[in-house]
Amino acid sequence: MSPIPLSFSGFSDNQSPPMFSSKSLQDPFHTPSNNYLGPYQVQAINSSVFSQGIPEIPHVQQLQSLQDTITKLQLENSSLKAERDAVQGAYNTLISQLTVMRSDSMTPADGPINVMLQSAPIVPTPLLKGDFLPHLNRVDYPDVRFWTEKDWKTWSSTTPEGQRANPYTSYFEDDKGEPLNAEKIGNILQTAREIWHEFRTHGVIKTDTTWSSMSLTVKKAFRSEISRAHSDLNLCEDGWKIDMIGKRYYSSFKQTWFTNRSDDSGKRKAKKELTDDTTSSPKPKRVKLTLSLSPEDSGHSTGDSTSNRSASNTGDSSTLSSSSILGPCMPSGPSSRQYTFPDADDVSQFDDNYTRAHAPGEKACKG
């Protein structure tokens, strides 16, 4: 028999149940009061109590499991939102770089749309936002002659040595004040061309961009790159030697890479069309031209004073002794000569008489 809980007995520890009272012992036929619980009643009460307490435990477990599921779903939702934002950002970037090309008039309205992926312009890195040119102290380099642009201009205009020097390269010097050799100067100019070509490739500089109209951000990028490659250019105040490179040579670079390249492309196209038109026509005959070597022999043909040249009516090149054809670089005189014009990129050919502006890729002649 199960024990009777005290909460249902109605008696304290010091009290005896009615069935064990003295009156019940004296009267065997005494009937217990209604407060007494029989064994079957106690068992029923205990069963009901336990049946009410047992379901509470699974209910708490279900609540905890539901809370864990909610937390897990919230984390997954946050992760999916982050992935969606990343994909959306990449999609927006791609769309911004797509340029719809002008459709051809022959293309049907329901035809495919031609698109072109355009390179994004160079975005300056945080390093390019500041002044990266090292601020050197002139006291640490006492042998440098042209620390300021004024020093160089004064030397060029007032001293015999400066007046004879090349005004386009004489400001290049090392930390001992010695002029840079032709190889180093050539490397500096080559670096400048490469940087500008990179800017042009990414659309940072346009056809109408000049050195004076170039943005400050692009100029800073140019100064930074060329100063890192050639430390001798830092031996001056405020990087004026680097700016001088831009003033002297950028216009020639633009002429070479924007104007001349466009003209050459047009000429090649016209030449190709002309070639296609003349493929079916018979080849013209070659004629002999007698070129005079001296004014006295004009109109005469002798073995000592004439030479035969074969020239083509289609535009084959010939060597002519006419100063009007060769331009102002051809000297006048009783006889003709063939002259070789120096390449402007070869700075070793510069001399004191070099007065014409020189730039990479430009042909120059001595004045």
Automatic annotation (TrEMBL):
It comes from the Eukaryota. Residues 9-27, 291-309 have a biased composition (Polar residues). Residues 261-275, 353-367 have a biased composition (Basic and acidic residues). Residues 1-27, 261-367 are annotated as: Disordered. Residues 310-324 have a biased composition (Low complexity). This is Uncharacterized protein. It comes from Pisolithus microcarpus 441.
